[in-house]
Amino acid sequence: MSFLTNIINGISLGSVYAIIALGYTMVYGIAKMLNFAHGDIIMVGAYAVFLITSALGFNPLVTVLIAMFLCTFLGITIERIAYKPLRNAGSPLAVLITAIGVSYLLQNLALILFGADAKVFKSVISLPPVKLFGGQITITGETLVTIILCIIIMTALTIFVGKTKAGQAMLAVSEDKGAASLMGINVNATIALTFAIGSALAAVAGVLLCSSYPSLTPYTGSMPGIKAFVAAVFGGIGSIPGAFIGGIILGILETLAKAYISTQLSDAIVFAALIIVLLVKPTGILGKKIMEKV
Amino acid sequence: MKKSLKFASLVLAVSMVAASLSGCGAGASSSDTFKIGGIGPITGGAAIYGQAVMNGAQIAVDEINAAGGINGHKIEFSFEDDEHNPEKSVNAYNTLLDKKMQILVGTVTSAPCIAVVDKANADNVFMLTPSATATEAIAKDNAFRVCFSDPNQGTEAAKYIGAKNLATKVAIIFDNSDPYSSGIKDNFVKESANQNFEVVAQEAYTQDSNTDFSTQLQATVDSGADLLFLPIYYQDASNILSQAAQKEIDIAVFGCDGFDGILGLDGFDTSLAEGVLLLTPFSTSSTDEKTQAFVKAYEAKCNGLTPNQFAADAYDAVYIVKAAIEKANLAPSASNAEICDALKKAMTEISYTGLTGSDITWGADGEPNKAPIVVEIKNGEYVVLD
Amino acid sequence: MKTLINKFNSDKTFKQNTITYAIVIVAYILCQSLILGGVMSNSMKGLLIQFCYYIIMAVSLNLTVGILGELSLGHAGFMCIGAFTGAILYKTLGEVLTFKPLLLLICIVAGALLAGLFGFLIGIPVLRLKGDYLAIVTLAFGEIIKNVCAAVFLGKDSKGFHISLKDQAALNLEDSGEMIIKGPLGITGLSFTVSFTACVILVLITLIIVLNLVNSRTGRAVMAIRDNRIAAEATGINVTKYKMLAFTISAALAGVAGVLYASSLSTLASSSKNFGYNMSIMILVYVVLGGIGNIRGSVIATVILVLLPEKLRFLSNYRMLIYAVVLIAMMLINWSPSARAKRDVLLSKINIFKKKTDEKEVQ
């Protein structure tokens, strides 16, 4: 029974990783940049919900919507000020370093604005836990909502990218920016839209992360951010279903490694698994193989 | 490339010259004051502890200065950030030396303290750490501490649980990346062999994996333990308690001094901590007049934030330094080495009563002798048990 | 002497390299005279050795990122290996070998060799990958090294060495036994110091190795692979061999930096503060800000960026916030095409820069 519980815990953790990874993978796929500040937008989203709930006491759903709006705004602003000027900088590393700078900036801004003390996040989900096998297995409301929401978001994104005009534009930009702009696609607007979606997802991920694991500090987002990045690479970065699968696998792997091998080494085991996957499939589980042109 | 570099260095050089100039302005000081330095993390993941110490010590300094200082000399206090990183801690120590520091109240956390204690010993600078618990943190003869050491706490906790028959099977969740936590755990396990209970699970986590505790909680349930021992700091503890509540796991909890402060956490549902026992030298709800005055001063200084045990340790540390200086009858004109030698001797002669204990005395090894008290959380308040 | 001057004037790379060495040597002489004059502050004295090992880190990472053209996010892992190798050797050999300089030399060489060996072993799988996938795998290796080093317990008694990944009790040490690595607490009671002079010599050796490599036949092969792998392969360059060579040298140099890191503190513990991906990224920041592939730039940028947070101390808890703002601003000024264009216009108006504008950029 405890094995099953561990699997469920792993899926729960994995769903949070998956939602973060979806944002990562969208941004990477279209803008071709590793947005190291993504994890910190999660933190901003969680703080927004925490502050709005404790100060104004709105309905949780309204609060989450406001947080999504704030994070979207933040994401677009960061893209405009810090990333866009470097899009043609000659080296992809320039924008990577700037993203790290933005990450430090958000963390330290939060440290000064909200203090170093952890905030205990009050879960926005009020579902009671579900008991299975006569109470031997408990699935918390947070777990259920996270898993369901993760599947909904993944499906919605797949449909959005595949069926809508804006989604098609994203695909075109990710294939070839120059050609896309020649076809009349507004590349700047498309990239901004990608950041908007990614940041809104980050807000949702922040709320779900802190609902399940309720300690909120300025550094809450950074480790899950890195793990989600690993998950996105695991599944094949740029692929939406890949991010989902990668997240879930990573969550289960981490939980099982902690439960049955060693807590200290669980991260090492997860990273070792990543290395093995990439050696067998160099572009991740669902990643496309890119032909090299001369 | 070269050009851009030249430009960047130009911009930087200008900004840095400006920075160092303004830095110098703050360092102007007279030789008529005791210069006390503090080091701890005020940015980064451990910032909460450093900030508590910085504020707690500042309150004590302000009080002492308002009351006329030590032997008629005022105190100058400056606090430097170390990001909980030994390398940065040594940098902070060197910066304080440049500011003519004579006595160090620090460092706050164990790993940096181990690095700094060697340098301070070589320079013959007296140091009193409010909160570094590792044995090695005060391995040198110039270093003393206010808080309990790890061995002390682990052993005391095991003895208390045994003496009161609180449990037959105990599970432990501890932070393996923190010497404080793993130190207490090791000694707790060692002492448990002499007691009437059994340690059935030892579940570790690290600071890189302190969000999800589901596996550790599951292992606790599987082990059939009837008491959960948490030798960890309160931020992670609040996370564990919340997750246990979500999973409807009901188990008695025993904590250490790091647990103290949990009730002051913003947004924490105090009913989750109901019935938690903890071994601590300090409690904010103590009716003691001194404690109440300190809590009030701290809340006024820090926008209503409740002081934790780190703040109280730091507050005491400054007063202990004062007591030792008065005992040794020192003047600020003395050299660092003279102050260090005199204070080393004075520390073993004084007996101090403050927020974190009564009639505390020190051995030459730097360890305090004080009795921990056991506190129970009842109706969202700390209640002192006998 | 005359031939040297002639060479200096005619051979451009020789001139550039000489300037780089000269900067280091002049800086060293300046620092030494300030120390002897007793005017150098304690905090600067404490930083000197840090400059040295971070310069070695940045230069060695620049070999991977700038010359080889592969993004590595796990460079701190090699530093970790070097640091632990050096510290363990020092602890175990310290009683037998009393001649300190020889002991230090052994530690440094061993740290370099072991880090190089790990670089070689890790390079075999890693260098088959490309781009961001390579970056993430190096990050993974770095994190694995850091985590394993933080979980190891190593003790020594009359029966020899005991090792465990669980806890100290699992070692079953005799009472007379001595703990060497105490898991997350690491190694304590290290008392070896490498002098500033020795550190500067190591920096110079690093520079000589890297600069000579860059300007050699091997270096040109490595850069050909960076610029176009397929074309390089077509001209008969053994791609794997040269990639491995550059990566291994880079790792070995990081190992040297690790030994210096261990020597500068009396305690060595592996944590996300010192050997995690954050440190790797920090070094990458030095490299990118100094100019990718520009070795002298790495040296200068490292000194500036190590000094910056120390000089910002007066800002108290706003320090890291301002540091982040400065970092973003420097990146935008240095790398944004539009800012560069504006700056070039501005600079061409200033006379001293004028004659340099037509000078080709050295990549």
Quick summary:
The complex is a heterotrimer of chains A (294), B (386) and C (363). Chain B is α/β, with parallel strands linked by helices.
Write structural notes for this entry:
The complex is a heterotrimer of chains A (294), B (386) and C (363). Chain A is mainly alpha-helical. Chain A has one domain. Chain A is 72% helix and 3% strand. Chain A contains eleven helices and four strands. Chain A has a two-stranded antiparallel sheet with strand order 1-4. The model of chain A has no long low-confidence stretch (mean pLDDT 87). By secondary structure, chain B is an alpha/beta fold. Chain B has eleven helices and 15 strands. In chain B, the strands form three sheets. In chain B, strands 7-6-8-9-10-14-15 form a seven-stranded mixed sheet, sandwiched between helices. A five-stranded parallel sheet of chain B has the order 2-1-3-4-5, with helices on both faces. Chain B has a three-stranded antiparallel sheet with strand order 11-12-13, covered by helices on one side. The longest helix of chain B has 25 residues, at 2-26. The termini of chain B are far apart. The longest helix of chain C has 27 residues, at 100-126. Chain C has helices at 2-10, 12-36, 42-67, 75-93, 100-126, 131-151, 196-214, 217-227, 229-234, 239-264, 277-290, 295-311, 319-335, 337-349, 351-354, and strands spanning 153-157, 160-164, 178-182. Chain C is mainly alpha-helical and 363 residues long. Chain C has a three-stranded antiparallel sheet with strand order 2-1-3, with helices on one face. Mean pLDDT of chain C is 87; it is low at 353-363. Chain C folds into two domains: 14-311, no CATH class; 322-363, no CATH class. Chain C has 15 helices and three strands. The two termini of chain C are 29 Å apart. The A-B interface holds A 2, 5-6, 9, 12-13, 50, 54, 108, 111, 115-123, 129, 138, 140-142, 209, 212-215, 217, 219-220, 223-224, 254-255, 258-259, 263-264, 266-267 and B 42-45, 47-48, 51, 176-177, 203-206, 208-216, 218-219, 221-222, 235-236, 238-239, 242-243, 246-248, 265-269, 305.
